[in-house]
Design brief:
two-stranded antiparallel ribbon; alpha+beta; 8 helices; globular; four-stranded mixed sheet; Chloramphenicol Acetyltransferase
Amino acid sequence: MQLPRPLAYSEYVRLRSSSESLATRKQDIDYWREQNLAAITPHNLPLDYRRPASRTYLGATLSHQYPPEVLADVRKAASKFGVTQQNVMMATFALMLAQLSKDESVLIGMPTADQADFGTDPLVGYGVNLLPIHIDLASADSVSGLLAKVRDRVIDAFEHKSVGYSELVREIISDADKRPAMQLVFNYSAYFGSLDFGSLKAAVFENARSAVMFDLFLNVVEMNEQLYVDLDYSTEIFSEETLSQWVAAMAEIVAILVSVDQDATISDLQAGHDADAK
């Protein structure tokens, strides 16, 4: 098999520095400036341990395999509300975070590949931008409205993805001398279930982390007609027991999304989850 010649990373940087690319990035910075990111406060999730004054970045990975019916529920909810499966799981993550923290809005990072915009798929190197998705649950008048809000936020972010979060910190957030803690990250992807190398057996698995950059990084993978979760977390502030309960709670929220009316309120959904938890 003839593999394409990988692009030099210096060429990728040159493409990103072209006048056309710089013009696009300026437009995207203006868009993100309008989102008032500097005013967003850090999350108030309940912690198992007091946050240390200085970070050690110590972490771990919690891996979980949902039963097939959870993916079936995600697909039903996506069809019911006219959104994608990624939207359903991101909204579920946001609902769980808001219910635990009592926050009316959550800021979730979403990784996206940047090199594809330049036709540089063979690039060997890091070309990922982290986009801030601000989900305001208080302004959603219904569960259907929340799912639509998540869908629109994700679409808008993809349309202005030439600027990553680190650049936004320099260009926008530092203007107010204040950095909202982007400490919650979500990713949804679909993997191939098997690799055919003839008589050679191969499998796909995620490397467990021992160091992390964020408080929580939830990676949801669709594979072999099931959903798999790899939750990277800071062991400075969270325990595996607590996060196992949170991962289980997400499956319960998805099931409720399937059963509630489209005009049900967020309070109705949260009340249903509280009742199920009891």
